[in-house]
Amino acid sequence: MPAIKLTNSKRSSTLANSSLGPVLSVTIVTPDLNSSIDAYRNYLHQRIHLEGRINLRQARRLGMSSLTGAKVAWMANELDERWLRLIEIPDAEVVDPFDHRGWMSLSINVQDLDVLRPALESSPFQIMGEPENLDTSQETRTMQLIGPAGEVLYLTEVKSEIPALELPVARCLVDRVFGPVLLADNREQALETYEELPGTEGVNSNAGITAINRARHLEPGEKHPISIIRLRGNNLIEVNQLDSLNERPVSSAGLPAGIAFISFASESLPENLQIAWSGSLVRGATGELFQLIKQQS
Length: 297
Description:
By secondary structure, this protein is mainly beta. The protein is built from 5 helices and 16 strands. A hairpin with a 2-residue loop joins strand 7 and strand 8.
């Protein structure tokens, strides 16, 4: 797949000055566009911002001419901020998100899980975990879902600003993604991709990951190596290290199944990477794809 590859990481000395972020949008590959649209519109309060087909210019900008003609829909929150792009590739596989390298899940701001929960019972989303408080904060609750294309969603309710966690507070019932989660065999190697960007650095720890432990039938308290990369705008990237991961299947159009790529704002890039601002997809060390969009401070 034509994609720029970042290499030769250099560790930055600070987290506060990251040039990366916030997350601008997420692109999901789905075998059935209408089913995915209906799921997000009817159960997660998103609306269609734009619907059509990918033209040749758009496909070439991504470096993937094979996407030309694919059905696409942009979904927006109640503030009319588009953040979710759904692309239909009929032969795309729906894979187990906990067994494959790459983008596994999306942390999404919501205002009230108790309001959302009843309708989700009969929705296309599979409920993996009921609303519960984070171990680190009684002011933050999460609920885990699996979507129609195999994407995992961590619906996250932050009741008030928590300086220690630096998480954003939702501005509407279901706001937008603030934290994509990456599955990797080696977190240090995965971090190298992002630490090449100015001011960007990961912090390592070990933590229990409820959704993964449930999916893999592990003990509830089992801990895994994780890294957190703090981004601009109180956004983040979480890297979860797991063993025995498989390659993520790639559709006939060249994009991986499920969460295909993440688009980030980027304030600055090293000179040798500025071509990435042209919109081409970048490949990380774990094989994940992402896009960098130039944004001034």
